[in-house]
Write a structure and sequence with these properties.
4-stranded antiparallel β-sheet, 2 helices, single chain, Neuraminidase, mainly beta, 5-stranded mixed β-sheet
């Protein structure tokens, strides 16, 4: 069936042994406090979008459709979730409120559109589309208008992940053989390969400060979660487990990484570990497949989240920016002498 074409292509590229029924999204972590984790689960008969607290409690279903709803991606302000669904006959990019209300088809194209990821200012969504005969990275406005091919390559480009400062999009491509991690400017220029391995490296996910990229690789014989610096250096195996670990998602505070783990290719669960790979814990803990997670960013009322402006200064950590949320924060700032004020931003 046409709606499963991207999934079949993904399986052919990655591994014929992974029969999970859906393709996967790539993620960017936006700085903030750690909110809920959105994920896809087949526990009620087909893939739907669920959320749970960061400790695995409070698991709740958001979508209630007879078709596949999967690959959730939180907006930078944590108020909306983009996702993919085939409810209109083929895969399209949808958006809904954080409580599951007001579900809207954004991409609305006859081709397969999958794997949404938000720009850090919330104005655009990148995604993968096969509308030109192969999978390319497209960008559209948040209302679905102005859909533009950014990667524009004869090979397949999948799993886009927007950097937290908005300047770069990481993605996976098979243009040089097996899937490797690449990065390009947000306008599609400057496409550069970051990983150079004969194995499969896929599914990039930026850290909230933009200094690192987590991804999945089978270079050690099974799929593990790795991390590299934003320039491709300093590769480290984080998960280091005999099981298969894929699809990393950073916590907004940068202290943890959620990921999917499967034992013997049976079912998947959502796990979390510290950013150094320690403390690996099963969060979803369900007999059905739970995968494709993303972490909600929250700005604490009156609070400040600090992070370094890495990518903006060509790899050097030079600037510290403040993110202030809500009217309560504005009221607090108004009391500070000298007219000190800040606006809510998403930079890295």
């Amino acid at each position: 069936m046409r709606r499963l074409a991207p999934f079949c292509l993904f399986l052919a590229i990655v591994s014929a042994t992974f029969a999970f029924g859906v393709a996967q999204p790539a993620r960017a972590a936006f700085p903030g406090a750690n909110g809920k984790i959105a994920f896809s689960s087949a526990r009620d008969g087909n893939y739907e979008i669920y959320v749970m607290n960061a400790d695995g409690s409070g698991q709740a279903r958001l979508t209630t459709d007879t078709h596949m709803d999967w690959s959730p991606a939180w907006s930078p302000d944590g108020s909306k979730i983009a996702f993919s669904s085939d409810r209109d006959g083929n895969m399209d990019i949808y958006v809904m409120n954080a409580d599951g209300s007001d579900q809207v088809n954004l991409s609305n194209n006859a081709a397969e559109d999958i794997e949404p990821t938000w720009s850090p200012d919330g104005s655009k969504i990148a995604f993968s589309s096969e509308r030109d005969g192969n999978l390319d990275i497209y960008v559209m406005n948040v209302d679905g208008s102005s859909q533009v091919n950014r990667s524009n390559n004869a090979a397949d480009e999948i799993f886009p992940a927007w950097s937290p400062n908005g300047s770069k999009i990481a993605f996976s491509s098979d243009r040089d053989g097996p899937l490797e991690i690449y990065v390009m400017n947000a306008d599609g220029s400057g496409q550069t390969r970051l990983t150079t391995d004969t194995s499969i490296d896929f599914y990039p996910a930026w850290s909230p400060d933009g200094s690192k990229i987590a991804y999945s690789s089978n270079r050690d014989g099974n799929y593990e979660i790795y991390v590299i610096n934003a320039d491709g250096s300093g590769q480290v195996n984080l998960s280091n487990n005999a099981a298969e670990e894929m699809f990393p998602a950073w916590s907004p505070d940068g202290s943890k990484i959620a990921f999917s783990r499967t034992h013997f290719y049976w079912n998947m669960d959502i796990y979390v570990m510290n950013a150094d790979g320690s403390g690996q814990v099963n969060l979803s803990n369900n007999a059905a497949d739970d995968s494709m997670c993303d972490w909600q960013p929250l700005q604490p009322v009156g609070g400040i989240v600090e992070f370094s402006d890495v990518a903006r200064d060509s790899g050097s950590s030079t600037g510290t920016y403040a993110a202030l949320a809500g009217l309560a924060a504005a009221a607090l700032l108004a009391l500070i002498a000298g007219g000190w004020y800040a606006r809510r931003r998403r930079l890295s």
